[in-house]
Specification:
This protein is of the alpha+beta class. The protein has one domain: Ubiquitin-like (UB roll), CATH 3.10.20.30. The chain is built from two helices and five strands; from the N terminus they run βαβαβββ. A five-stranded mixed β-sheet has the order 2-1-5-3-4. The protein is globular. The mean pLDDT is 92.
Length: 77
């Protein structure tokens, strides 16, 4: 199973892409492990994970249809 992950802000700039794809992840915990393994720069940047437009703080089961996004810290005004 391949998951497409949308990137925003400094994550997009640091990785030089609008999105990345990760293979073989079934849940958000495994996704984080693989992301930090395949893209070590992500260990240096603070970010949150959103699945289907909801910020997550617990393990979430993923499917190929899941919309996953990595969101850097942001401030409003």
């Amino acid at each position: 199973m391949r998951i497409k992950i949308l990137l925003f802000g400094q994550l997009k700039e640091r990785l030089g892409a609008d999105f990345i794809e990760i293979e073989g992840v079934m849940d958000s915990d495994l996704l984080m492990v693989k992301l930090k393994s395949e893209f070590p720069v992500l260990s240096e940047i603070s970010f949150r994970v959103a699945v289907d437009k909801n910020l997550i703080s617990e393990k979430v089961v993923l499917s190929e249809k899941s919309e996953v996004a990595l969101l850097p810290p942001f401030s409003g005004g």
